[in-house]
Specification:
single chain; binds NADP nicotinamide-adenine-dinucleotide phosphate; Rossmann fold; 7-stranded parallel beta sheet; alpha/beta
């Protein structure tokens, strides 16, 4: 993708990785539009970045996605990129046999991007150059057992992204997957944002933007830190790696 001169929608752009990407693309001269549910987070981000635009959107609501997309394309006919960043991650104990969290995670992380892509694709295909960027996770490739549905949605997003890329191979729409490692944000709460084992957000965004700006035809954006997870399934010791990875994470080892 050309890192400049786009009109980009970033879901979940009021916090964390979404906000940092929004600011990075904004500072490169792109028109950036952010969405999310918490208006105060969107307002704060726009106030700190004059020229950015924000709309409230709950990505769980399929009808709202359709209405929003129509309104968005009327207001911003130059829109040529979307970053499906909004997501939720929750711990689930499968022995409790509850599915409410699982359903919300699937609707937010998987159905949300699928529905929004469907609403925007006809417009993107008519553009000279457009892109769809999904946001998966290193956990798509080596699941953390304490967050089973989250990891499953990220593996599904990886799979969906490949199919989307294949089907759109003869169009002007580039399909990119951003695969973050463990990054300091409030995805699972305040402690996540200060966990020394997580990659500092600034470092993650700087390496990510350097890959995007230096590799126009990039398909998967992998910072160095995520490569061991991204390529874990291709190694001969996957089963042992899975066991060790999960035994080392306190919740999984606690035997829930
Ligand atoms: N941080 C990590 O370690 C890590 C690692 C791998 C992948 N990722 C992925 O990176 C993406 C961004 O996460 P983050 O780490 O930056 O955490 P974050 O700060 O919690 O960002 C998640 C964003 O998604 C939005 N969101 C959640 N549910 C929504 C809904 N129903 N409708 C609209 N927006 C919704 C949130 O805004 P509202 O709550 O205001 O709606 C929030 O802005 C996620 O897809 C996550 O899975 C993160």
């Amino acid at each position: 993708m050309n890192p400049k001169g786009n009109t980009i929608l970033i879901t979940g752009g009021g916090t964390g990785i979404g906000r940092a990407l929004a600011e990075a693309f904004h500072s490169l001269g792109n028109q950036v539009i952010i969405t999310g549910r918490r208006k105060e987070m969107l307002e704060k981000t726009v106030a700190a970045n004059p020229g950015m635009t924000a709309y409230a959107l709950d990505i769980m609501d399929g009808e709202e996605i359709k209405r929003f997309s129509e309104k968005l394309l009327k207001a911003h006919p130059s829109l040529n990129g979307v970053i499906h960043n909004a997501g939720i991650m929750r711990t689930e104990w499968v022995k409790e046999a509850k599915v409410t969290d699982a359903e919300e995670i699937v609707i937010t992380n998987l159905l949300g991007p699928i529905r929004l892509t469907a609403s925007l694709l006809p417009h993107f295909q008519a553009a000279n150059s457009a892109f769809v960027m999904t946001v998966s996770s290193g956990l798509a490739f080596l699941p953390g057992a304490v967050t089973p549905t989250y990891c499953a949605t990220k593996a599904a997003i990886h799979s969906y992204t490949q199919s989307l890329r294949y089907q759109l191979r003869d169009t002007s729409v580039q399909v990119i997957e951003l695969i973050p490692p463990y990054v300091q944000t409030e995805l699972t709460g305040a402690a996540h944002a200060v966990d020394p084992n997580a990659m500092p957000l600034k470092d993650f965004i700087s390496e990510t933007m350097s890959i995007i700006t230096s590799t126009p035809d990039v398909q998967e954006v992998c910072v160095e830190r995520v490569k061991p997870l991204r390529f874990s399934a291709s190694g001969p010791n996957y089963e042992a790696l899975f066991q060790k990875f999960n035994d080392s994470r306190s919740g999984a080892a606690a035997g829930h």
